């Protein structure tokens, strides 16, 4: 099968041009057609010669995604279910904030991490996405925003899958959407979330990018974390915290710790005290997440007052903590829910 044109970074496309007897600057023209004019075929690239357009068409594919369904929440959140070329389905979400529109992208079909609170891991991992299949999610979302004369300003890699288990495609994706001749999304407007794949936290630190890193922590100690996140057996909490310290020291950037609150599991005042002790002295902040109810899982929601109590305890201990605003609770916006519903319908 031909590769996706959207998987090529600018240097890679320049190299392809030169190897195929074309001037390197043509790569910039192609990027302009793909990411600024956002055309759907090589034939529309009218400032390229017919011969070059034919070469591109013979060498690359452009049909990475097909929209299956689109849902829109009362709060403006838009959720897409896309079909891939092999029939698998993935999700992408547009979230509206006071600072702009954020696109949440998926990096894998399914997930093998096995977090016990997450719908994304139901059914396990099917395959990694190519860089272009991740890029196309941002592009498809931007085309939907074009209809409303709006722009995607931020990207969060927090959809289905573990980004650091698809590391090379992730890096290609980041470079493509950041390119100033492409979607030109600033590195500081991009956040990557990981469940704690320790070796690649070190690798990512050494990339010296300005991309934000978020760690899915969800527990104040190893025992609770292993219960919620089996990945803690593979990469224990103490090793994860060492990697986090290395990231902060190497990059000089603040880390985000994501902490989902689950009723009577990790949301008691003593858990907040323990979490504050774990993070003491680190350049970080905690993003407290009131969990979306997932029918296939049996965790219950933390009461609102308990969430505020948890936040107050962290702040009193010197840990900056925010509470994530809910998006799309009326459209099954928790990761993997729409995909799981589609799988049931197609199998049933």
3D structure, described in words:
This protein is of the alpha/beta class. The chain has two domains: 5-59, DNA polymerase, domain 1 (Orthogonal Bundle); 66-347, Alpha-Beta Barrel (TIM Barrel). It has helices at 10-19, 26-36, 50-59, 131-146, 167-178, 198-207, 222-228, 231-234, 237-251, 269-279, 304-316, 337-347, and strands at 66-72, 78-83, 89-97, 100-104, 108-110, 125-128, 152-157, 190-194, 212-216, 255-261, 284-290, 320-323. The strands form two sheets. It has a ten-stranded mixed sheet with strand order 1-2-3-4-7-8-9-10-11-12. The longest helix is centred in the middle third of the chain and has 16 residues, at 131-146. The chain starts with 9 loop residues before the first helix and ends with a helix.
Which key terms come to mind for this protein?
348 residues; alpha/beta; DNA polymerase, domain 1; TIM Barrel; ten-stranded mixed β-sheet; 12 strands; 4Fe-4S
What's the SSE blueprint?
Blueprint: H1 10-19, H2 26-36, H3 50-59, E1 66-72, E2 78-83, E3 89-97, E4 100-104, E5 108-110, E6 125-128, H4 131-146, E7 152-157, H5 167-178, E8 190-194, H6 198-207, E9 212-216, H7 222-228, H8 231-234, H9 237-251, E10 255-261, H10 269-279, E11 284-290, H11 304-316, E12 320-323, H12 337-347
Parallel strand pairs: 4-7, 7-8, 8-9, 9-10, 10-11, 11-12
Antiparallel strand pairs: 1-2, 2-3, 3-4, 5-6
């Amino acid at each position: 099968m031909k590769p996706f044109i959207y998987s090529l970074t600018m240097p890679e496309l320049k190299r392809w041009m030169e190897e195929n007897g074309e001037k390197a600057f043509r790569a910039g023209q192609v990027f302009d057609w793909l990411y600024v004019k956002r055309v759907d075929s090589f034939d529309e690239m009218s400032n390229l010669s017919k011969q070059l357009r034919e070469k591109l068409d013979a060498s690359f594919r452009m049909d990475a995604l097909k929209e299956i369904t689109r849902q829109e929440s009362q709060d403006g959140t838009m959720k897409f279910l896309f079909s891939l070329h092999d029939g698998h389905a993935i999700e992408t979400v547009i979230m509206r904030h006071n600072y702009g529109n954020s696109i949440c992208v998926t990096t894998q079909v399914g997930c093998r991490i096995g977090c016990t609170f997450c719908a994304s891991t139901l059914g396990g991992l099917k395959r990694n996405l190519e860089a272009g299949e991740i890029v196309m999610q941002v592009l498809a979302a931007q085309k939907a925003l074009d209809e409303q004369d709006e722009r995607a300003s931020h990207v969060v890699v927090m959809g289905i899958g573990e980004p650091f288990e698809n590391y090379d495609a992730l890096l290609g994706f980041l470079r493509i959407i950041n390119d100033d001749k492409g979607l030109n999304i600033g590195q500081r407007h991009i956040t990557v979330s990981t469940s704690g794949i320790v070796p690649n936290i070190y690798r990512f630190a050494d990339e010296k990018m300005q991309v934000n890193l978020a760690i899915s922590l969800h527990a104040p100690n190893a025992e609770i974390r292993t219960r919620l996140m089996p990945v803690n057996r593979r990469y224990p909490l103490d090793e994860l915290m060492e990697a986090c310290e290395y990231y902060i020291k190497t990059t000089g950037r603040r880390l985000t710790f994501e902490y989902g609150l689950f009723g009577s599991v990790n949301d008691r005042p003593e858990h907040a005290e323990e979490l504050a002790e774990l993070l003491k002295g680190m350049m970080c902040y905690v993003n407290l997440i009131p969990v979306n109810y997932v029918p296939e899982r049996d965790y219950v929601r933390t009461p609102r007052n308990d969430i505020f109590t948890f936040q107050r305890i962290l702040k009193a201990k010197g840990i900056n903590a925010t509470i994530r605003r809910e998006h799309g609770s009326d459209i099954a916006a928790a990761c993997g829910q729409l995909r799981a519903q589609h799988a049931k319908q197609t199998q049933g």
